[in-house]
Structures are given as C-alpha cells and as structure tokens.
Design goal:
This protein is an alpha/beta fold. The strands form 2 sheets. The protein has a 5-stranded parallel β-sheet, with helices on both faces. A 5-stranded parallel β-sheet has the order 7-6-8-9-10, with helices on both faces. The chain is globular. It binds 5-amino-5-deoxy-1-O-phosphono-D-mannitol (M6R). The site of 5-amino-5-deoxy-1-O-phosphono-D-mannitol has 15 residues, from α4. Keywords: Aminotransferase, Cytoplasm, Glutamine amidotransferase, Repeat, Transferase. Homodimer. It catalyses: D-fructose 6-phosphate + L-glutamine = D-glucosamine 6-phosphate + L-glutamate.
C-alpha cells in the first residue's frame, strides 16, 4: 500500500499535488471569481461581527496556523492571535462571543487541541475546525468544519496534511476577504488562478528531488543547523526545522533572520549549515544582508529562492534551490516541499525509521 514508494512519508509528499486539487475541488465558483464554502454556516452578518481570531493547534498544524495568521490578517484585516494548544488554556485567553477560534488538527483527536476547542465554546466563541478526518472529535464538536482532502496520512511526520491546511487557510482567507469587501473581486480571481497552478508547480519541484537528496546527504553529517527567514518564510522555516528534527534527529533551530544578531549569531561557526528562505521580494534585501552575516562567520548557506532571482552563488550563498514563481502569499505551499524532502533524505541517510520516529506517536491523545 506504499504504492511503490519506500516509505509512507515519501508517498505522502508525492501525493501533495492531488491533495491540493482535492482540497480546492468544489470550493471555487464556476466563473473562478470566488470561494464557495458551503460548509460554513456563518451568515455574512455574523462574519462581519468577528472582532478577532484565535488560531490554536499543535506541532505541524500550529505551523500551518502561523501561515494562516498572515493570510487572514493580510486578506481580511482581522487581528489574529495564535497559540500552541497546550499553552492556550492556561494563559486565560480573552475569548468573547465575538472571537472566532480556529482549531487546526490533521487527526481531529489531539487532546490539547480538543480541550482548547471546549474552552473556547464554554466562553461563547464560535469554533471553526480545519481537520482531515470526517467524524473526528474535533469535527463533531466544532460549529463549522473545513475538511482538508489530503486522504489518510500514515507517516508520523505530517506533510500533505500541512500543505492541505495551507490551502484551506488560503480559501478561507479569500472567503473572508470577499464577504468583508477587504479585497476586490478581480484581485481574488487572480489569486484563485495562481492557486490552481500550485499542484503542477509542486510536481516540478518533485522532479528535482535528486538534487535535494544530495544536499540532504551532506546535511546528515552535521549535528546542528539553522533555518532562517522573514515573515511568512519564517513560518515555513519553523516547519522545515520540526520536520528535520523529528525524523533525522539532527538538532535545528528556525530563526527570524533579523533576530540572529540578538544572540544566536554566536552559535554560527565554520561549516555550520544554514538554510535560508528568501521568497518574499519585499524582504529580499534585508534577508540577504542577514545571510551575509552568517556567511562571514563561515556558515555554509543553502538558499531557497524564487526562480529567476539573481543571486551570485559562491559569494553570499553556497547552493541555491529555486522554487517556481507564485504570488508571495502562496509561496509556503511550494517552499515547504524541498524542506520535506531534505528531512526525508537526511533521515534516510542516517538509517532512521522514517515513518515511525523514536518517541513519537501519530496522534497525541494525552495532554
Ligand atoms: O493530528 P494533529 O494535526 O492535531 O497533530 C498535531 C501534531 O501532533 C502533529 O502535527 C505533529 O507535530 C507531527 N508529527 C509533525 O510532523
């Protein structure tokens, strides 16, 4: 049932183009100009009444939520807070009936996420769940549910569930923007066109997996490395770092590129690998200057850039991997794919049990 792949994780990475298509299917109007989320029971009146959004999740789902926060804030201009579920309940969050709480969970059974959902409902908030499992506890208890159509995810390391959650957030952000009138219809139509190109763009990344295998084999020789990025790239950097830690057991940290010189730069020494994400044009110069800072201290830099970006390899960046061009806010759906492959091949090179990493379970049903 691995369909010819060596591991479920690799199979699931390759299933992403289909997962993107399936998650979008039936949710874009026939004229391609708006998002249709028939499963959302909120009236336009209720949507206009949302004062703030809380996103609550664990692990990889939390990282999808970080991207979701950027999307909702930029598309719908509603303030969003985000918490890991195990922290949320214990910090006495200010939840009112005008708060929309979005819980994100692949399995829909994560104990902390479920507890957060119940707390939100107790405070009178409306809860939207983004989950992959129909009939899961989270899907049954939430007021509204968006099902990601990733199909069953078996590997402990989440891949296609994460990217399907990104697609769900993109659709939901556009749906809010349309309802609230924060973005005009032509703009929304352009984003939907770009979204529908994502599956084939992922395919073009997957075709270059061998290049990443080679990079991963050299990363696997290190015990420490860093991921850096700004804005939405930082959110993806965190997911790349978690993926690498959980299956390769290589210690890594994701850092907002501009924050390095406030302490972490002290850890940069000769030969340490730094994976830098630079997909956001408006932040390009700033991130490049941070890259030069680590390079000057001897780091070996792998840059993840948009196709066509002119960077002088060898000077500030040692190796480049280009991702196809898309709109800046959609880039996480592409830039995470090479990071998933790096984690997979690094785990393989280290001889680990890729699908069942030590100490971890697929579904965490204890708090
Ligand atoms: O089923 P959930 O999405 O609620 O699971 C949340 C986390 O346990 C999960 O994403 C975990 O971080 C993955 N193993 C990461 O690959």
């Amino acid at each position: 049932e691995k369909a010819g792949f060596d591991h479920f994780m690799l199979k699931e990475i390759y299933e992403q183009p289909k997962a993107y298509r399936d998650t979008m299917m039936g949710r874009i109007s026939a004229d391609g100009r708006s998002v249709e989320l028939k499963e959302i029971g909120m009236t336009p009146e209720q949507i206009r009444g949302i004062r703030n959004v809380h996103i609550v999740a664990c692990g990889t789902a939390y990282h999808a939520g970080m991207v979701g926060k950027s999307l909702i804030e930029s598309l719908a201009r509603i303030p969003v807070e985000i918490d890991v579920a195990s922290e949320y309940r214990y910090r006495s969050p200010i939840i009112t009936p005008e708060t929309l709480v979005i819980v994100v969970s692949q399995s829909g059974e994560t104990a902390d996420t479920l507890a957060a959902l119940r707390e939100a409902k107790r405070c009178g908030a409306r809860v939207l769940a983004i989950t992959n499992v129909v009939g899961s506890s989270v899907s049954r208890e939430a007021n509204d549910v968006i099902i990601t159509q990733a199909g069953p995810e078996i590997a402990v390391a989440s891949t296609k569930a994460y990217t399907s959650q990104l697609i769900a957030f993109m659709l939901y952000g556009l749906f809010l923007a349309d309802t609230l009138g924060t973005r005009d219809k032509d703009w929304i139509a352009d984003v939907l066109v770009a979204m529908q190109k994502l599956p084939e763009q992922v395919e073009s990344i997957l075709e270059r997996a061998q290049v990443l295998k080679q990079v991963a084999e050299s990363l696997a020789k290190h015990d420490n490395l860093f991921f850096i990025g700004r804005g939405i790239d930082f959110a993806v950097a965190q997911e790349g770092s978690l993926k690498l830690k959980e299956i390769s057991y290589i210690h890594s940290e994701a850092y907002p590129a501009g924050e390095l010189k406030h302490g972490t730069l002290a850890l940069i020494e000769e030969g340490i690998p730094v994976i830098a994400l630079i997909t956001q044009e408006d932040l390009y110069e700033k991130t490049l200057s941070n890259i030069k800072e680590v390079k000057a201290r001897g780091a070996h830099v792998l840059g993840l850039v948009n196709e066509g970006t002119e960077v002088e390899v060898g000077k500030s960046i040692d190796e480049l991997f280009a991702i196809p061009r898309t709109l800046p806010l959609l880039s996480p759906a592409l830039s995470v794919v090479p990071l998933q492959l790096l984690a997979y091949y690094a785990s393989l090179a280290r001889g680990n049990d890729v699908d069942k990493p030590r100490n971890l379970a697929k579904s965490v049903t204890v708090e």
